[in-house]
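Friendly challenge for the regulars: who can give me the structure tokens for this chain first? No prize, just bragging rights.
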Amino acid sequence: MKKCLTIFNIHVGYISTTYLSTWALYFVAKNTNVLHKIREENMELAKDKKYRFITYEDVLKLKYTNKVVEETVRLANLSGFIFRKTIEDVDYKGYLLPKDWEIIVWTRHLHVDLANFENPMGFNPNRWEIRPKVGTFYAFGGGWKSCPGNMLELLNPDVKLRYLSHPIPTDGLQLLFSEI
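First reply, four minutes later:
Bragging rights claimed.
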């Protein structure tokens, strides 16, 4: 059973990181100004790298690129809902949710609710300069039920965007981007 769960968890991580990376590429292609900012940030980091591989410490320095990934997670979250259980009777908008009821929180609604985010359907990495209010962003669940692979999920597109933003990769093939 342990082997089965391990294989399942690796497969789930593969799907989610691929999904997030694909959406990150889509949003960057639709917003070429974002690509230019990612490129500037990464070229600054590359000045002293001499084509060394990127490290985890380097990824942490990519503040704007990280914001792009977080904004991608907000708009294209793979997990549309999370399961919770009420720990006491709750009155929600005139409805009684009794203690021990299992409920589903639709996180996608939280992520695109005008009450939580200004222009919620717009792709704006700068919104992450200020952390969202508590209870408005649940990309990876919360508490002890948080996704154990959330750091991998965020790291994978960071690395891809870092290498994507180089105008001339080390193999000499120039990449040209235009807005979709």
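The first strand starts at residue 81 and ends at 85. The first helix runs from residue 2 to 30. Your move, everyone else.
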